[in-house]
Specification:
7 helices, single chain, globular, 124 residues, mainly alpha
């Protein structure tokens, strides 16, 4: 990618897109009978804030993620690769519904997938 190419963050629509994406995405996640229970005791405002930071950072935006390490936050929660796959499929559906191209949605998932082992607690 050349220096002048827009980042994925910019191509997706920047802060406005991420701000709209997070709540729309979590409507799907929380309604999922397999994923919703993971968030039963979660402060959704904090979750949205941390996810916003994470997505901005993961897509090349101007924010650094300030939350606790992903492996620490997700440790011992029983999250499997199947849960993670469901989570990312809801993300793809949400992105596509928001007008993101399949190519860009796939690029988002490629970046999110780099965190799989930290989230599911798999060793290398």
């Amino acid at each position: 990618m050349s220096q002048n190419s827009p980042s994925l963050y910019e191509r997706l629509g920047g802060e406005d897109m991420i701000a709209a994406l997070i709540p729309a995405f979590y409507v799907r996640v929380l309604a999922d009978p397999e994923l919703g229970p993971f968030f039963k005791h979660t402060a959704l405002d904090k979750l949205h804030s941390m996810q916003r930071e994470f997505f901005v950072m993961a897509t090349g935006g101007p924010i650094e993620y300030s939350g606790r390490p992903l492996a620490h936050v997700h440790h011992g929660r029983g999250i499997t690769r199947q849960h993670f796959a469901r989570f990312t499929s809801h993300l793809v559906e949400t992105l596509l519904d928001m007008g993101v191209t399949r190519e860009e949605a796939d690029e988002v998932i490629e970046r999110i997938n780099t965190t799989t082992n930290e989230i599911v607690g798999a060793s290398y």
